[in-house]
TrEMBL record:
Name of the protein this chain belongs to: DNA-binding CsgD family transcriptional regulator
Ranges where the HTH luxR-type domain occurs: 830-895
Gene3D superfamilies referenced in this protein's UniProt entry, alphabetically: Tetratricopeptide repeat domain (1.25.40.10), Winged helix-like DNA-binding domain superfamily/Winged helix DNA-binding domain (1.10.10.10)
Pfam family, one: GerE
Keyword DNA-binding: yes
Organism of derivation: Streptomyces rapamycinicus
Keyword Ribonucleoprotein attached: no
Length: 899
């Protein structure tokens, strides 16, 4: 009987033995083992030990056994062979004598492990079977053993020899085996799944039954999607490979190491064996149900074999596998996996492979795997330039997960810059130095780049220009202390095609335009093109953020918010904490500009919670400043006060520093610390002017400074700042223009205020800043109240209350309570006009009265902006009002107006 290991040969032999005994025949049994292969006639001894021998026969057996193992010094090999032949003959005679008692059946398990003399005995005995009532049943599975091959060939040559081949259980056979365990096994598809996992090997199937029974005792079988593969299965796998012998065991380990790349040819090279031996190993393991198409059927089987390899052997195999796979041209990720396990990269080819694998890991967002690969490459880099490049990439990748971890590599990068071993692109290390506030070292690095860059290399010049643009937008001090050398070329269409296609260059050019120039249309278009073309990368100077800020500072919040939400969702899905933090801060800024301080607070706290303060570096000023403004707007001055001393000194040399100064100035204004607030806002303005960033889309500091002067009684100075804000480039048609008009109204005569405030409210509502709109409507209500126009005052107060409620600003509602406490229930407009509105006009007018912009209304109602404008025009005429500011807040979507 032949078959794979653990396929049921022994069980079949045991069943046959019971039938033989029940029939009255004599059954003698022996089991060969690898451990007794060197014991002469060990199998024969087991047979006779199980036989009913007489006293004299037992004595003969003992004498023959002793004679077989006793060798005299004067015996030559021929004499010894003659002695063995005689002993074997006498053993056969002794066994044949037992047939006088009846038919005799000899069963031997695992005959492939029988010793040489026992095999000779069996050969001798089989030649005498035709005339004797003896049946010999041998169990064996194929091994590469020349002695066994010869023995097997002799057996098959006899006409009275029959071979029974036991194959794996079929799916039907598996189902039948599982039928006795229906209490823990549900019906299909588990039998089919078990057959696929086990390959029909009964030992593995019983292990699956045991694992399933163990788990089924703790959970409902309905909750189990498939067979449970656990400890019993893994142990059964190890039993199979160990029973197959040391050669097959080593082959299984080699295949486990090679995994999907494993082939018989590669296995032969890995183990330094002949190809036919590797083919035999694969065949044996396939017959045992462990392999299918040359690979492990189930990951747990591979893991069990892999974990069973000793540490040094495992390292050796993985190192050899890496070499072979590299020579075979395998994918870098496959080769690199073996390099990581072997922890060896001393060969020159390993570092490029690890870098390529890291790049591929980053494409799949396997950031931690990329870090492992780069750390291994960096540790064994012999070339200084190569090591600097790997360290730079490692720092960038670590920055995505934990910027403070990347900061630990800065000393090495600084040393590489000083030694002049950085590659041409040193923008990444300079960016990391700047992020962490290492301004002096960043200046050294930039000067080093000026000195070493090849000015005829258009790509290198483009990289330098990108670095300068990025630094100019966020670290203007850097360019003032490390000015560009004269005659340095700038990238343009004639210099480099990359200058026209590089998304970083396009995004930073647009951002620079918004911060420093008075034309925004092209910048907004370029920013949208960048956002449509790019995904979040791993570099500090990623183009996505400047593109988003371009839309934000150009007052295109209707475009910036959806883009930011989509990118923030992407960052969360990809588990990139650094981008989650930065995008949350940008989203907080957008919410603040939309007049939603509560949302701004939530996003700002999310930004600060995503990474540590240390990881934020000097950019910490952004989330701190936005959170400070949000808390101030919400009237939570005690909490805001705690943040007024939170920014480190190096922050104030950056764009984020002036944002924080502006926020702190507004906080001081709200807390009536007028001189402190004026100092912060004036410093903010001076820095913006010095850095050529004093455009209204960024920070309208003059309006807040004017309000402080107004409280201090400096009306002329306040008016000058308000008027100066109104005349700044790009102010008209922006939220800053509305803010400045409101400020100018506060500096004007009482009778002039309503007109200015109405214009301010129109612009603020159009731009979508609801908080400033609520402030302006509150000022307008108070102006009408002071002029004795109580009806108009109440109307404006109602609108302001509604918008302030949406913004959740208790401070404004406290101011409005005075006016609203005196209002009566009389309608302030013609009810007939309200009923004359169509449903579409009423829906549009209702949303406009609540402070929504035309774009927001169009998006909510799924109509065009032009249709919104037409509905509003007709609503104004029917209601006899001049603008959206005069729309009543109690308009209903349908039916008559109510108070």
């Amino acid at each position: 009987m032949t078959g794979a290991v653990a396929c049921g040969k022994t069980s079949l032999l045991n069943t046959f033995a019971r039938d033989v005994k029940d029939a009255g025949a004599l059954f003698l049994h022996a089991g060969a083992s690898r451990a007794e292969q060197l014991l002469p006639l060990g199998v024969v001894g087991q047979l006779l030990d199980s036989a009913p021998l007489s006293a004299s026969q037992s004595q003969r057996s003992a004498r023959l056994s002793a004679e077989c193992v006793t060798e005299r010094p004067d015996q030559d090999s021929e004499t010894l062979e003659q002695q063995h032949a005689r002993v074997i003959h006498e053993f056969c005679t002794l066994l044949l004598e037992l047939t006088t008692q009846g038919p005799l059946v000899v069963g031997i398990d695992d005959v492939q492990y029988a010793d040489r003399l026992s095999l000779q005995f069996l050969s001798y005995l089989t030649r005498r079977l035709a005339a004797e009532p003896i049946l010999i049943v041998l169990n064996e599975w194929a091994v590469l053993e020349p002695a066994l091959d010869s023995f097997r060939a002799e057996l098959i040559s006899h006409s009275h020899c029959r071979r029974i081949r036991l194959g794996p259980l079929s799916p039907a056979g598996v189902a039948e085996l599982l039928a006795d365990h229906t209490d823990t096994w549900p019906s299909s598809p588990l039998p089919t799944a078990c057959a696929e996992i086990s390959g029909g090997n009964p030992l593995l199937i019983r292990a699956l039954i045991e694992d399933h029974a163990t788990v089924a005792g703790r959970v409902s079988t309905e909750d189990l999607a498939g067979p449970v593969v656990a400890d019993a299965f893994r142990e059964a796998v190890l039993v199979c490979v160990h029973r197959c012998g040391p050669d097959v065991l080593e082959g299984a380990q080699g295949l486990a190491v090679l995994d999907d790349a494993g082939t018989p040819a590669l296995l032969a090279r890995l183990l330094d064996i002949e190809p036919h031996q590797a083919d035999h190993i694969v065949e044996v393991l396939t017959m045992a149900g462990l392999l299918a198409d040359g690979h492990f059927r189930h990951p747990a089987a591979r893991t069990a074999v892999l974990d069973n390899i000793a540490g040094k052997d495992r390292t050796r195999l993985h190192r050899r596998a890496a070499e072979l796979l590299y020579q075979e041209g395998a994918q870098a990720t496959t080769v690199a996996a073996h390099l990581i396990t072997s922890n060896q990269t001393d060969a020159p080819w390993t570092v490029p492979v690890l870098r390529e694998a890291a790049d591929q890991a980053l494409v799949g967002d396997q950031v931690e795997q990329a870090i492992k690969l780069l750390k291994l490459a960096r540790r064994n880099c012999a070339d200084k330039r190569q090591q600097a490049a790997v360290t730079t990439l490692l720092a960038e990748v670590e920055w995505r997960l934990n910027p403070s971890a990347a900061a630990r590599l800065l000393p090495e990068l600084i040393e590489a810059v000083r030694a002049g071993v950085m590659e041409t692109d040193v923008t990444a290390p300079v960016g990391l130095l700047l992020w962490n506030g290492e301004l002096a070292h960043a200046i050294d690095a930039l000067n080093q780049l000026y000195a070493t860059v090849d000015r005829s290399d258009s790509q290198a010049v483009t990289e330098l220009h990108i670095l300068r643009l990025w630094a100019g937008c966020s670290y203007p001090v850097l360019l003032r202390r490390a000015p560009e050398p004269s005659g340095f070329p700038h990238p343009d269409d004639s210099l480099s095609e990359a200058a026209a296609t590089d998304m970083r260059l396009r995004a930073l050019t647009a951002f620079t335009t918004v911060l420093r120039q008075d034309t925004h249309a092209k910048a907004v278009t370029a920013a949208e093109q960048v956002l449509q073309s790019c995904h979040l990368g791993h570099a500090v100077m990623d183009p996505v953020i400047p593109a988003l800020l371009t839309l934000t500072y150009a007052d295109r919040l209707d475009k910036a918010a959806p883009w930011c939400d989509a990118l923030l969702a992407e960052a969360r899905a990809r588990h990139v904490p650094a981008w989650q933090a930065i995008l949350s801060a940008v989203r907080a800024d957008i919410a603040l500009r939309q007049g939603d301080p509560e949302a701004a607070e939530q996003h700002a706290r999310s930004a600060l919670g995503a990474i540590s303060d240390r990881s934020w570096g000097v950019a910490l000023g952004a989330p701190l400043g936005i959170l400070l403004q949000a808390l101030t707007s919400l009237g939570r001055h005690a909490e805001a006060e705690e943040l007024t001393r939170a920014a480190p000194p190096e922050v104030f040399q950056t764009r984020w520093g002036v944002l924080y100064l502006y926020a702190r100035g507004r906080c001081h204004l709200a807390a009536n610390r007028l001189q402190a607030g004026l100092s912060d806002l004036t410093t903010c303005g001076e820095l913006l002017a010095a850095w050529d960033m004093d455009l209204p889309g960024f920070l309208p500091w003059r309006a807040d400074a004017a309000r402080i002067h107004l409280r201090l009684g400096n009306v002329r100075q306040a008016r000058r700042l308000a008027e100066e804000q109104l005349t700044r480039p790009l102010t008209r048609g922006s939220r800053t223009h509305g803010i400045a008009l409101r400020t100018l109204a506060a500096c004007s005569e009482l009778k002039q205020r309503p007109h200015l405030l109405r214009k301010a409210a129109e612009e603020l509502q159009e731009q979508g800043d609801r908080l400033e709109l609520a402030e302006t409507l509150t000022d307008l209500s108070e102006a009408h109240y002071a002029l004795g126009e109580s009806d108009r005052a109440r109307m404006m107060a109602r609108r302001a209350w509604h918008v302030a409620t949406e913004c959740r600003t208790d401070v404004l509602r406290e101011r409005l309570s005075v006016c609203l406490a005196e209002e009566d229930a009389a309608p302030l407009i013609d009810t007939a006009g309200v009923t004359a509105l169509s449903d579409a006009e009423r829906r549009v007018a209702t949303l406009a009265a609540k402070g929504h912009t035309n774009r927001e209304i169009a998006r909510k109602l799924y109509i065009t902006v032009s249709t919104v404008e037409q509905h509003l025009t007709r609503a104004y005429r029917k209601l006899d009002v001049r603008s959206r500011v005069d729309l009543p807040v109690w308009l209903q979507p349908s039916g008559a107006a109510t108070t």
